[in-house]
Amino acid sequence: MLLGLLTALLLVVVVAALLLGARRSRRRPRGGHPLAEQTPAEKSFAAPTSFDLGLWQPDRPINLLLEVDHLQVDGTTLRGQIRVKRYRLSQEGDQAILGAHCQLLKRFLDFNSQSLQRCLDLQSGEWIDDLPAFLEASHEASQQGKLDRLYQSHQDELAVLLYVGRADGVLQRREKELIAYYLTGRFTGGSLQVEEIAHDLAWKPVPNRDDFRLATKRLALLDASLKDQIVQLCRQLIEVKDTLDGDEEGSMAEVIALLQP
Questions:
Q1: How far apart are the C-alpha atoms of 226 and 259, rounded to whole Å?
Q2: Of 125, 42, 121, 127, which Cα lies nearest the Cα of 84?
Q3: Which of 68, 73, 123, 195 shows a CA-CA span of 20 to 30 A to 211?
Q4: What is the phi-psi region of residue 239: left when phi exceeds 0, alpha when psi lies from -120 to 50, beta otherwise?
Q5: In what order do the strands lie in the sheet with 96-102?
Q6: Is the dihedral of CA 238, 244, 246, 252 positive or negative?
């Protein structure tokens, strides 16, 4: 009987020792989570976005897939793919803020180019040494870049045509097509189709009356043949509908008074 009690006591001691060892093996190491339990979300992939917008140029749209090494606060780097949808440059053009969807964290973030230690364009396989310059070149070569150059080089004509076209409150499909056809004939900065210009015009803001008048006065300095072409197009815009609504008649009168006095 005594032997049985000793055996049972020894068994209890062995089981207790095994349980204690198992608890110690599951204990987390000091300083945080075990590496196996760390998730990507626990790292801060994007730099803080406390940027002074007065020091930056306006946003430009773009569509790029990049692989980047991002410098973390603790000095380590985190590698991942980002889909860049917009960017803005500093006034000096030597820095960039990238608005991109981070495929690692599954959310849209802002990235400062100074925090990107390594950058690879996944479409071309090209290593990017000067990210701001690469962004500008990519934008210039894109269709949106061509549209931006078109609007910039013919902003006065566009302001007048959009104002007259929307004088009744609505820029109809036929009106957008007429304006787009005119602009394709005037633009020499790249190949653009009437359909893509017409589609993009739907998102252009309506010029205010002061901008319309200033643009019309500047257009008065153009050659007579071009001024006649603009006046004729304005007439076509207001004739798309059978009736004159809103400020169509008044805006047309101002265009004629300044361009065909």
A1: 10
A2: 121
A3: 195
A4: alpha
A5: 107-112, 96-102, 77-89, 60-71, 116-121, 126-127
A6: positive
The count of C-alpha atoms lying within 13 angstroms of the C-alpha of 69, restricted to the half-sphere facing its C-beta, is 7
Q: Please report, for the chain, how many H helices and E strands are present, in that order.
A: 9, 6
Task: Say if CB 156 and CB 212 are below 8 A apart.
Answer: no
pTM: 0.65
Q: How many residues does the chain have?
A: 261
End-to-end CA distance of the chain: 127
Which amino acid type is present at position 125? G
Residue pair 113/136 in contact (Cβ under 8 Å)? The answer is no
Report which of 117, 94, 205, 101 is spatially closest to residue 158, judged by C-alpha positions.
205
Tokens found for residue 138: 């990519």
Residues of the chain with pLDDT under 50: 2-3, 5-6, 14-15, 18-50
Please report, as a single letter, which amino acid is at residue 59: D
Residue whose pair of structure tokens reads 């075990």 in the numeric block: 34
Q: Do the Cβ atoms of 40 and 104 come closer than 8 Å?
A: yes
pLDDT recorded at residue 112: 92
Residue 8, number of CB atoms within 10 A of its CB: 9
* Residues 37-66 pLDDT 10s: 334 433 444 444 445 556 889 899 999 999
| DSSP helix/strand/coil, 27 | coil
